[in-house]
Every structure is written in structure tokens, then in C-alpha cells.
Write a structure and sequence with these properties.
The protein has helices spanning 2-11, 13-44, 46-50, 75-80, 143-148, 197-203, 224-235, 242-256, 259-288, 290-298, 303-337, 348-374, and strands spanning 55-58, 85-99, 105-113, 124-128, 138-142, 167-170, 173-182, 192-196, 213-218, 238-241. It has 384 residues and is α+β, with helices and mostly antiparallel strands. The protein has 2 domains: 2-43 and 258-382, no CATH class; 72-236, no CATH class. It has a 6-stranded mixed barrel with strand order 2-3-8-5-7-6.
Length: 384
């Protein structure tokens, strides 16, 4: 009987293709938008992966990692003296203007690291030596900065990315590239430029308070959560562990921006479109096969068996459409991964959620047919 159900489904090629096409579009829309949304959220916390530190100490009102409220220079020593803290280093971060070699001005994310330890240094160097940051006017740039600030080898030629040894200007001060690193993309799209803390203060416009954050590490054997709690209790500053800062940043994004609502609306639209197309098409398919279903019922097939046949048909087209949609999403991810725009992060949980959504769509579509079959009179077979 189940083999017969599949033959009925595949026999109506037009309805089968419409069902698969609608569910493919629904799966593609839900999965692709979810992946772009998760990729965008990952950009909001890229700071913590580009500058690795167990504890981030900030001004008490800071709720997310991309927000900066200046601290006093003396706060570094206050954090260093806290029980359970192994060491603490100052960090400068700010958006500055850089002049590319073609004369255009670009915004960059300037990061100033403690000169002695370079704590918070980029995780992956592609060329050059990070230790050279201690040389006057030295900077390490990421790949995006190298591309945006690139120079033309000759007039009229296309610019090439900056390399080790090239120079450019930051706020009318010369900056010499001593290294190229790889970073995760910043939420606002700014390229990263690393220097020492003191040198970054020279590049940045002078203000009364210049310290942006403090990167700290707990003593061996002391959990980061415990050390962070001690910092808050003894200094009055806000101390986040990495998981806490990630959650706080994402909570801020959800509460204060329209990004989540926009993506959730699109994902919900994909679900509604799937329900509408699959429900209407499958109900039409059942109506066209009422005489066949009535014949089976007249031969003794129970409502339960006929319902199982309809569920098999619905789930079959659902799984086929889901597989095609997931494949198209993966191809989209491969295509955009080369340029990095838009962000794309396909997580296993998102794949599973889309599968559950497609199965729910199929169940709802089959339910319409099941209700019709339950009321079906076998005598329909003998009517003209």
C-alpha cells in the first residue's frame, strides 16, 4: 500500500514538482536567512576572538563589546591589585581615520596593546613579526585593511594590497606596516589595525581619558568567574568573562536593534509560504485522487492506513524539498565565503530547526487531506 502511495504521488508529476518546489523555497529561505543572521551575530562578538582574554573589564554602564566608555589610567593598577587576578593590561580601541595611498580616507578600528606583553595580539599572523610593533610608528594590519588601504604600483594601474614595509597615514601620522594578520570581520565592517598602547594614543586624537578597556587574566586555579566577581566587588567596574560578554552583547543586539526582528520576519515568511503552497497543492492532489482513495476504502483500507499513506506522501516531498533547499543554501554559503559578504554561519542547530519546520509544514498539509479522507464515502467509486 505504501508503494502504491508513492506511485500515486510520482504519477502526478505536476503536483509533485509544485510540492517539491514550494518546500525547497521554504527550506532555502529559512536556512539561508538563519545562516546570514547567525553570521551577522558572530560579527558582533568578533572583538573577543580577535583579542583573546579571559576577563574584560569595562566601565560600569557598558553592555556590549563594541561599546566604549573611557576608564581612568589608574584603573589598571586597581584591577591588578584585586584578589585572584594574575595580571591586567590596558587596551585602546577606537575608530580612527586613515589615509590610503591613493589619498582617500578610510575608517579603521585601531587597537592598542600593552607594549611589554602584547596581550590581546591577533591569533594568526600571515606575514611579518608581531614583536616589531614595539618599533616607532609600527602597525600590524589585517587583510581587509591591506585591501582597503592598498596602493597602485604605477599611475593608472589597479591598487594592490599593502604589504610588510609599506606606509600609510593615520590622522596625519605615518604608520609603517610590520605585519599582516587574519581577523574575523568587525560588526561595523572596519578593518583592524594593531599597534602598541602608547603608539595608539599618539595616533588617536587626544582626550582626557584614553583607556578603553582592561584585559585581565585570573591566577592559576582561580575560575574566571570568581576573579571577575572580585574585580566588580573591589573596584566598582564591570568585569565580564568571555561567555558573559557574548551573552550581554547578543542581548543588547536583540533589545536595541531591529536586526533580529527583520530576520525573524523573513524566516517566518518562509514558513508561511511553505504552509500555503504545500497545503493548497497537497489538498488539490487529494481531491484529484478521491476516487482512487475511495476504491481503496471500499476494498477494506482503514482510515488509519489511508492517513499513513498521505503522511508518507507529504513527508516524502518534504524531505526531498528540504534536501534540495539545504544543498542550495550550502552553495550560497560557498559562493559568499570568497568575498565575506554577507556573513554566513550555518550551524547544525539551524539545520535541525529547518527540518522540524518542514516536517510540521508537511504534517499540516497532510492533515487537510486526512480530514477529507476521513469523511470519504466508499460509494464515491460508483458515482458517475
Amino acid at each position: 500500500m505504501f508503494h502504491l502511495a508513492l506511485r500515486m504521488l510520482l504519477g502526478d508529476r505536476a503536483k509533485y514538482l509544485m510540492l517539491v518546489g514550494g518546500l525547497t523555497f521554504s527550506a532555502l529561505l529559512m536556512t539561508q536567512q538563519n545562516a546570514v543572521f547567525q553570521g551577522l551575530l558572530s560579527w558582533t562578538t568578533s572583538h573577543m576572538r580577535n583579542m583573546r582574554a579571559p576577563i574584560w573589564v569595562v566601565e560600569g554602564r557598558v553592555q556590549q563589546v563594541n561599546e566604549t566608555k573611557a576608564l581612568r589610567d589608574t584603573d589598571v593598577n586597581r584591577v591588578r591589585s584585586v584578589t585572584g587576578v594574575d595580571f591586567a593590561m590596558p587596551l585602546f580601541q577606537g575608530v580612527l581615520k586613515a589615509r590610503a595611498t591613493d589619498g582617500s580616507e578610510k575608517l579603521i578600528q585601531m587597537i592598542g596593546l600593552h607594549a611589554g606583553t602584547l596581550f590581546g595580539r591577533p591569533a594568526r599572523m600571515l606575514s611579518g613579526n608581531i614583536e616589531q610593533l614595539r618599533v616607532a610608528n609600527a602597525v600590524v594590519i589585517d587583510e581587509l585593511a591591506a585591501e582597503r588601504l592598498g596602493r597602485a604600483p604605477a599611475p593608472g594601474q589597479a591598487p594592490r594590497p599593502l604589504a610588510v614595509g609599506d606606509v600609510f597615514e593615520i590622522n596625519d601620522r605615518e604608520a609603517r606596516v610590520v605585519g599582516l594578520c587574519r581577523t574575523e570581520r568587525h560588526f561595523f565592517g572596519y578593518p583592524y589595525v594593531f599597534s602598541t598602547y602608547d603608539q595608539a594614543l599618539q595616533f588617536a586624537p587626544r582626550q582626557r581619558k584614553m583607556l578603553s578597556m582592561i584585559l585581565a587574566s585570573p591566577r592559576p586555579g582561580v575560575p574566571a568567574e570568581v576573579a571577575a566577581a572580585h574585580i566588580e566587588a573591589e573596584t566598582g567596574l564591570k568585569a565580564y568573562t568571555v561567555p558573559e560578554f557574548e551573552r550581554s552583547t547578543l542581548d543588547w543586539i536583540w533589545k536595541n536593534t531591529g536586526i533580529p526582528a527583520s530576520f525573524m520576519t523573513t524566516i517566518l515568511l518562509g514558513f508561511i509560504v511553505g504552509v500555503a503552497i504545500a497545503g493548497q497543492t497537497f489538498y488539490s492532489f487529494v481531491l484529484e485522487n478521491l476516487r482512487n482513495l475511495g476504491a481503496l476504502k471500499a476494498m477494506g483500507a482503514s482510515n488509519g492506513l489511508l492517513s499513513a499513506m498521505l503522511l508518507l506522501q507529504a513527508f516524502t516531498v518534504g524531505l526531498v524539498g528540504y534536501g534540495i533547499g539545504l544543498g542550495l543554501t550550502a552553495l550560497f554559503g560557498l559562493a559568499v565565503s570568497q568575498g565575506g559578504q554577507p556573513p554566513f554561519l550555518l550551524q547544525p542547530a539551524a539545520v535541525l530547526r529547518t527540518l522540524v519546520a518542514i516536517l510540521i509544514i508537511c504534517f499540516l498539509a497532510a492533515l487537510l487531506g486526512i480530514r477529507k479522507v476521513a469523511k470519504l464515502e466508499p460509494a464515491i467509486v460508483f458515482r458517475g
